[in-house]
Amino acid sequence: MSFDGKTRARTPHRIGLDIGTHSVKGVEVVERGSELIIRAAQVVPILSTSNPNEPPTPDAIVHAVRTMLTTGGFQSNKVILALPPEAVYMKWLHLEASSPTELDETARVAAVRGAPFDPDDVVVDYRVLLPRARRGRNVHFVMLVAASASTIDTMLDLADRAGLEPVAVDVGPVAAARSIEDTTRRGSPLWSGQPRAHCIVGARSTTISVIRGDELEFARTVPVGGNDFTARIAERLSIDWEEAEKIKLSRGTRLLENATLVIATAEGEVSVPCDNVVGRLAREIQRSLRFFSSQYAEGSYLGIIGSTVLAGGGALLRGLDRALMYQGVEINSIADPFAGFSVDARPGLQSIGDFAAQFITAVGLAIGSYCDDSSLVEDRAAAA
Q1: Between β-strands 88-96 and 23-32, what pairing exists: parallel, antiparallel or unpaired?
Q2: Which domain range does residue 131 map to?
Q3: Which of 169, 201, 195 is nearest to 304 (CA)?
Q4: What is the pTM of this model?
Q5: Paired residues of 215 in beta bridges
Q6: Is the residue at 99 inside a domain?
Q7: S-S: 89 plus which of 115, 207, 235, 355, CB 3.0-4.6 Å?
Q8: What is the Cα 181 distance to its own chain's centre?
């Protein structure tokens, strides 16, 4: 893995592949002159067990990826993958070291010691960030990242089985931050660099991150996500999980400000109380952002969050942004990672904006080698 600021060699066509709990999302980016084109984008459900607590089988994932490639009209076989949140350990620490060699050793020891993986199963990297407070000359503020080597091998094997050539494995929050920063630059070239939060609402968990410029300054994953809403629907209507998931994403379903989920059925509207789920998510977001701000002096500009952006498949639940705002979370917008990109004029692609939020990580993966930021990557040769 590398945080040295060097970008990978550019590939004319490449796919960012985000393998989630219930679906796979892919985005293919094409470079035409100085412009990046979204050539393909597709999401395909993973046909797996009806038990949401069980991970999808490798066979189900491979089948979903192959289906995505066929139905989405992808041309490239070069792919960048994202590690799942549970396979990554991230920590921000002040480390004392008098030389680059000592810092490297200290950072790697700290990462291995803190990571919830077997020491023989850890791949480590780090990035030196700007300090958050006045410290000694030999004290460095470091972002540590440790990943499960066995999970990386599994991801690479899945890509191989699907007929893809893995170029790298990236960290989901880093890729998402890259996508949001790229969108911000396209929309506001004179943006001042104030820290901004984004919340990626997944199926089982939500990752709350803070980025400043092109650097990820904070990330925390909490165990609440879209599955919690699906569970409430299944319980209220006495139906199975798959049917409840379809209802949750249907156009007739919406979340009111008071966290009541309203479902349109043939017999009329049904109300599903979700105040516990929305309340837990709001509290976790607020707690995470308060912790980030506490790392700076009170009132410091560096610790003031400029806005919060919702992203991920869970953000597609209509009304979630308003329900969180009612709980006191300041939501600026729902992410649109395709904003500012030209989109290929093939049938179906023009409507991807309706479901853009769930592609935030896939877009960040696909544009990695075109950005000037420092990206965390695990090359195939290094992972072998």
Answers
A1: unpaired
A2: 88-146
A3: 195
A4: 0.86
A5: 212
A6: yes
A7: 115
A8: 13
